[in-house]
Amino acid sequence: MTASTTTRSTCPYCGVGCGVLIDSEGGRITRVRGDPEHPANFGRLCSKGSTLHLTARPEVQAQVRLLQPLQRAQRGGAALPLAWDQALDTLGQRIAATVQQHGADAVGLYVSGQLLTEDYYVFNKFAKGLLGTNNIDTNSRLCMSSAVAGYKATLGADAPPACYDDIAQAATLFISGANPAWAHPILFRRIEDARRANPALKIIVCDPRRTDTAELADLHLALQPGSDVWLYHGMLRCMLEQSWIDPQFIATRTQGWMGLAALVTQATPEAVQQHCGIAPGDLLRAARWFAGVQDGNSTRQPTLSLYCQGLNQSAHGTDNNTALINLHLACGQIGKPGAGPLSLTGQPNAMGGREVGALANQLSAHRNLADARHRAEVAALWGVPSVPAAPGKAAIEMFQAAADGQIKLLWIACTNPAHSLPDQALVRRALQRAEYVVVQDAYATGATARFADLLLPASTWGEKEGTVTNSERRISRVRAAVPAPDLAWADWRIVTEVARRLQPQLPDRAHLPSLFPYDGPEAIWNEHRESTRGRDLDITGLSWAQLETAPRQWPCPEGQSQGLARLYTNQHFATPDGRARFAVQLPGTVADPIDARHPLALLTGRLRDQWHGLSRSGLVENLWAHASEPVAQMAREDMDRLGLAPGDLAYLTSRRGSVLAPVQAGEGLRSGQVFMAMHWGDEVLGGASSTGKRLAGVNALTTAARCPQSLQPELKHAAIKVLKA
Length: 725
Ligand code: SF4
What we know:
Elements: E1 4-10, E2 19-25, E3 28-34, H1 52-55, H2 58-64, E4 70-72, E5 79-81, H3 84-102, E6 107-111, H4 117-131, E7 136-138, H5 145-155, H6 166-169, E8 172-176, H7 180-183, H8 185-197, E9 202-206, H9 212-215, E10 219-221, H10 228-241, H11 247-253, E11 254-255, H12 257-263, H13 269-276, H14 280-291, E12 303-307, H15 309-312, H16 317-330, E13 340-343, H17 350-356, E14 362-363, E15 367-368, H18 372-382, H19 395-403, E16 409-413, H20 417-420, H21 424-433, E17 436-441, E18 454-457, E19 466-469, E20 474-478, H22 491-502, H23 521-531, H24 544-549, E21 552-553, E22 580-581, E23 600-605, E24 632-634, H25 636-641, E25 649-653, E26 658-665, E27 673-677, E28 717-724
Parallel strand pairs: 6-7, 6-16, 8-9, 8-12, 9-10, 11-22, 12-13, 16-17, 17-18, 23-27, 24-26
Antiparallel strand pairs: 1-2, 2-3, 4-5, 4-18, 14-15, 19-20, 20-21, 23-28, 24-27, 25-26, 25-28
Helix pairs in contact: 3-22, 4-17, 4-22, 4-23, 5-16, 10-13, 10-14, 10-16, 19-21
The protein binds iron/sulfur cluster.
């Protein structure tokens, strides 16, 4: 009998970042338990985390894994095996030839918030340091880029100021555009705990739908899609009129108040009611609770905001974020226990990608691409003459450029854009037009794999080593409990091996020492750690050995042994003068408005028991019990009006495409709204419903319209019509 071993690691699903204990025996993962010592979850796991071992069963993995390098001689043809050396040589030569013929900007790398920080780091260095292009972006663009832009515009740095412990210390929780009951379940347990411990806790939920999170709310503000800024402006106007603002904080710790104060006078209760559908009494109550002015208490009570894709995935995503942070600044609700804005990351390592700068408009360690000094610092760290100054193409732009023939070679890692990007017609044109498509993934089942000329097998959760950072800036180790299948490699290793082949072929890099001398994730992490010296996320005080003992929050500069739980406690912000900035934003509306032809508002979101494109969570039978089929939920009266009975198939059609789905009554929806989960793509386990009809993914409907500052697309909303099939 082989001995059972236990390995400490981190859940690979959402940004809560729960610690897990993986039991394994004879190279097989047998059980996953919550890690009682991990400060993100203290032993708890949700339905997804607690069934991770079922996703790792070798017999299940064998059905879905990409287990050897494969190439296609032509699109649509069979993918045939080739040796790793051949695959790496081929890719190195293809990239070198593309750069020689068309320049480095003809290459695009599209990576993922599910990569580990070390994988992310080498991908970013590969693009910006070796190739000389900023054409690297990530599916975190679809997730958190509006939060990034919001933090930077107001607080001066992309640093979530609060922490999970603040949930227990808040007097008001303002949950906006988020459904943690389903999307961040273990964080929601903390919210329930806080409610039990403090019955006076006020919970406000802003969401067009009456979600499970909204069920817990003292006040549910069921605002109209796209009307977030109207709501926040209306609340600020109330605070001003009622003298609930903090004039001292505004005068000494901020800039830009007068312009905003003048602007919000237009957000009268009547205007808010018209745009948001929120009654004046509810608006006033929300403003009072947010400001921390509660009955019978003369001191201001702390308010914590928790927010997610409802704010971010919008053509006004940055404005939604800055308008919410304005409320915190106006009331001094920041930098103290229980107070502050805390964005909830969707993906397990969206934070890590931001830290290493693996976005088209960022550089390592939160440096700015537009800053020549920052570019010079990164070039010096990497030992290259320069890094390019021109911003690269963000996610949608990258696929648009491929569709237009400007980007010739696409290297896609650990993500499935033929499912997850909006406007799938555009994405598929791009994948067809690109001259060479590389898909690097653990799974062979993603829709994008069908378009690949070269497929590279990667190792995955349970098999790989590295780090991730969760929503509260906490860095945790991810560890291997079992070996990867023979020919599946760690992502960092694949990139490193391609880089070693490519560097001698690039005239301005060939003479340099190897830029990728890594022998493992620790060496990469050490280089990343040094890149943070003196930056807002400085982790030079944190060693790999310390991380082995416990997860730590950043910043943790040299000389400190613990990271900071909460930022801006000294009320000094990360701006040149230390003052936060009020951002002035005009209220907008949705990018894809309803009209007579497309009279219904499609809202997208997550299901409780599934994750993203289902490649992992879809392997667990029990997780299908909650929602076994793609369905479109509608208000009962709309179904009656359209002659639809529960289970009827209907075509959902937007200005970009059409999908076929069964309909169901959705209790939490208003008339005029339709909800469909983002998990359903046309590759989902055969893509067929119980009726045998093929189903297309919801992103055939969504729009590529995006926020001009963050470039995050409006995945949350589209105008559609629904017709019985
Ligand atoms: Fe994993 Fe998120 Fe569930 Fe925690 S809450 S177990 S990180 S999916």
